[in-house]
């Protein structure tokens, strides 16, 4: 069995989607599935990845074909005539396609060519059918859905959902294709000794000050502004804390956040860490005290699972679609996306080391039992086998 994963971009700046496809393909290959990725050299905005084009290369330990992106970038659509030609010539070299993303050229093009050449494909909707996500650029998405996306989804051999909530969103969108519900995975961390002390030293934070972590793209969908407003309320009540915002975003939005920080009087309480990976990322996850992601919409939230696997207690909103699993396992706090509710939840954890430890241990147990890349890859491989047998 030979599988091709198609995704518009594997830019590190995209965060979760890039992490997922690279880790998923790596895990599938470790399970004996011959798997590759085809994508563009997009690196967000007007940037391009510095990678060899039109050839199979090893990238982040997995085989990837990079095709040139049309410039200038068309936001998330990421048009690529070269990708079209490559898919038309090579799609029959594969037994099944795994398409990541909706409302984007690469996914629509791959689905159309697959149908034309008789190759089965699956689609990962990545939370893009969640009501809040559909409300963004609503008219464009309605037109795109009418022209191609609904047909693309209804002709898929299966839709890969990461939670029961996402599967419901697929059905509510009127899609009749079978769904396969498999969570995403998280890599086991390499534990760093004295992470807390090193983190406090690096960011010049007093050792007795609890550290709150936001680790995601700085985007209004993720609501770092809500987190800052909640912490502004806690600062007015003399709570002791420091917030680290780890991630990148559009320059204008980051500037908005910095202005908000100043207006709330939080300049001495907040550090902007920028994009982090590897050891720097693990230092944050293992050295902080609380993880918060108050997102409007998150189909899985890979950073949430990464926090849980190291025992970091999490606070999320219902828009994070694994929130029901977190609540059921008592692995964190799930609160409405409002200033008072979020502030109260953070205050609970700031004032109770015992609660932080209890939630952290429950989260680690949940992540280790549910979010293993190896188990997920094996289950996905079985799903591929079933699809090919049915074909």
Automatic annotation (TrEMBL):
PANTHER family xref list: SULFOQUINOVOSYL TRANSFERASE SQD2
One Pfam family from the record: Glycos_transf_1
Name this protein carries in UniProt: Glycosyltransferase
EC annotation from Swiss-Prot or TrEMBL: 2.4.-.-
Glycosyltransferase subfamily 4-like N-terminal domain sequence ranges: 15-185
Domain Glycosyl transferase family: 205-365
Top enzyme category: transferase
GO MF annotations in UniProt: glycosyltransferase activity
Alphabetical UniProt keywords: Glycosyltransferase, Transferase
């Amino acid at each position: 069995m030979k599988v091709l994963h198609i995704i518009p971009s594997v830019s590190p700046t995209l965060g979760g989607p890039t992490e997922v496809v690279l880790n998923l393909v790596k895990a599938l290959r470790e399970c004996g599935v011959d798997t590759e990725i085809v994508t563009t050299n997009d690196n967000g905005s007007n940037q391009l990845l510095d990678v060899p084009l039109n050839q199979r290369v090893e990238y982040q330990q997995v085989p990837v074909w990079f095709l040139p992106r049309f410039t200038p970038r068309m936001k998330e659509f990421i048009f690529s005539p070269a990708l079209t030609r490559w898919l038309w010539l090579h799609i029959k070299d594969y037994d099944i396609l795994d398409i990541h993303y909706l409302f984007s050229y690469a996914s629509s093009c791959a689905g159309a060519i697959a149908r034309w050449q008789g190759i089965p494909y699956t689609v990962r909707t990545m939370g893009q059918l969640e009501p809040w996500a559909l409300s963004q650029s609503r008219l464009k998405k309605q037109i795109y859905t009418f022209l191609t996306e609904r047909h693309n989804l209804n002709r898929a051999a299966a839709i890969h959902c990461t939670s029961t909530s996402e599967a419901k969103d697929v059905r509510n969108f009127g899609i009749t294709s079978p769904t396969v519900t498999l969570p995403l995975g998280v890599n086991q961390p390499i534990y760093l000794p004295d992470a807390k002390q090193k983190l406090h030293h690096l960011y010049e934070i007093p050792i007795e000050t609890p550290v709150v972590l936001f680790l995601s793209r700085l985007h209004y969908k993720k609501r770092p502004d809500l987190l800052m407003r909640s912490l502004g309320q806690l600062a007015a009540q003399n709570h002791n804390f420091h917030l680290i915002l780890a991630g990148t975003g559009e320059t204008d939005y980051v500037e908005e956040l910095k202005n908000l920080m100043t207006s709330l009087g939080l300049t001495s309480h907040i550090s902007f860490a920028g994009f982090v990976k590897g050891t720097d990322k693990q230092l944050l996850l293992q050295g902080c005290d609380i993880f918060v992601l108050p997102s409007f919409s998150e189909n899985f939230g890979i950073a949430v699972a990464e926090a849980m696997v190291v025992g970091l207690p999490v606070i999320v909103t219902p828009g994070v679609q694994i929130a029901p699993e977190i609540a059921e396992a008592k692995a964190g706090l799930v609160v409405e996306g409002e200033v008072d509710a979020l502030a109260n939840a953070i205050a609970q954890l700031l004032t109770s080391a015992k609660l932080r430890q209890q939630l952290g241990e429950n989260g680690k147990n949940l992540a280790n039992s549910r979010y293993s890349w190896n188990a997920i890859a094996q289950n996905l491989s079985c799903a591929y086998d079933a699809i090919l047998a049915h074909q």
